[in-house]
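Look over this record as teaching material.
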Amino acid sequence: KKLVQLFLEQDINSVITEEHIAEGNWIVTDYRFLSPDIVLINYEDGHTAGQALLKIDFVGRNKVKGHIIWKLE
């Protein structure tokens, strides 16, 4: 879980592909593990907020890969 938490804090922009209103960065404001490989995330960029389910595909030595499987539109 620790590597996933770091991923959410530092690299969430690699999976959230929505455009920013003012060229900001997405930050995760809240998250909850629904299972070991599914995370419900709330995110924002200071102007726009969203919610998504992130599927964790891989956790390895200092590397996490995942993709969005659902996003609140």
